[in-house]
Amino acid sequence: MKYFAFLRSVGLCAALVAVSAVLSGCSKSEPARFRLNMLDMVENEVPPSHQQQIADILTAMYGTPDEPFVLPETELDLDLLKMAAGAVASDEQGQETGLFRRHCVHCHGISGDGAGPTAAFMTPYPRDYRQGKFKFKSTERSSKPTRDDLKRILVDGIPGTSMPSFALLPEEQIDALVEYVAYLSMRGETETQLARLLMDLGEDDEGNLEPYPTDPDFLIEEVLYPVVDRWLAAEDEVIAVDPETAPPADRSPQELAESIAKGRDLFYSNRANCASCHGPSGLGDGQLTDFDDWNRSVKEFAESHPDVDVASLGLLPVQTIKPRNLRQGIYRGGRRPIDLYRRIHAGINGVPMPGVGPSSPGLEGTLSPEEIWNLVDYVRAMPEEALSQPPKLPPALERERL
């Protein structure tokens, strides 16, 4: 019974596509559809026939925007997904559905690709969930976020961006949106896995690629588990804070000032190297020509495929990434000391911001936990610091300014 819905969906997918095409001629609008990640399709040279097979497999494993479906191995809550999915509506009891389209789709798009109708007008662009990369979280750099991490972003929003707070929504609706974000991300990562699987497919006697395997056990073991396992591991990969190294809450003004001074020295040192990006005055003007992973992938794709119109693939124009202006006191990942500690410890996934803590538990980082706390204190103090006497920079940074 576990795979019955999966097998049934694979077998009926072609029929569903045909029925949808017929029905669309009789309705005012076509049903919502997930859009394939065409950058992956072109980059992995997936032919149209195999693109359709990927779409069929994804429909079997995840359903559609109107009718989500998940395999039990994902441990996703289907009831919450149904509340978030579909068209905007409410029943006689006032139970709302279609929450993602009501609140999120205009920025993040039906497919969660960050290319909704208003996305092109935003800096930075809304998050593309399909790569499974999340910037602001409590876990190690390459780890997935916990559900609490995603919930916190929804409740607090992201200061300095177009992402608002949804704190006024009922908790169940927030939980439904959190679950749907994880669902879109898992689906997108599964799509990428399927595109890369093309390299392992053989050819028939006529030199044509073999079709994708539709055996449920194979797809679950080789495609789904590598995606799901990392999401299930997130709770165990939260960056722990040793209370022995954390500053006490009752520090004296003198102790805090000493920590700020140490953090200031680290900020402009070659070890932490913060000023190389955030600028000699922390104004975010140290470098202005780099890219985050989402924009870099589009840039590199356009350079390697000059004959392809990237806009026709649903891709937005490339944006450079701007380091944070720390003098403003606006911290997108949260302003609590623990938030800043984790940003400095692990860096920010998907962007050039590196981490200075250990890359794995038990290893030694560039900075000690105590030194990271010193940096946290200095970063929090920067909005109050006078700029009339710029600090003396390391020689390498001084040469860059000449």
Would you give an account of this structure?
It is a single chain. With about 400 residues, the protein is mainly α. The chain folds into two domains: about 230 residues, no CATH class; about 110 residues, Cytochrome Bc1 Complex, Chain D, domain 2 (Orthogonal Bundle), CATH 1.10.760.10. The protein contains 15 helices and two strands. Strands 1-2 form a two-stranded antiparallel ribbon. Strand 1 and strand 2 form a beta hairpin. Helix 1 packs across helix 3 and helix 8 packs across helix 9. The longest helix has 27 residues.
What is this structure's SSE topology?
Blueprint: H1 4-24, H2 38-43, H3 48-62, H4 78-84, E1 89-90, E2 96-97, H5 99-103, H6 105-108, H7 147-156, H8 171-197, H9 216-232, H10 253-267, H11 275-278, H12 293-304, H13 337-346, H14 369-381, H15 395-401
Antiparallel strand pairs: 1-2
Helix pairs in contact: 1-3, 3-8, 4-8, 7-8, 8-9, 10-14, 13-14
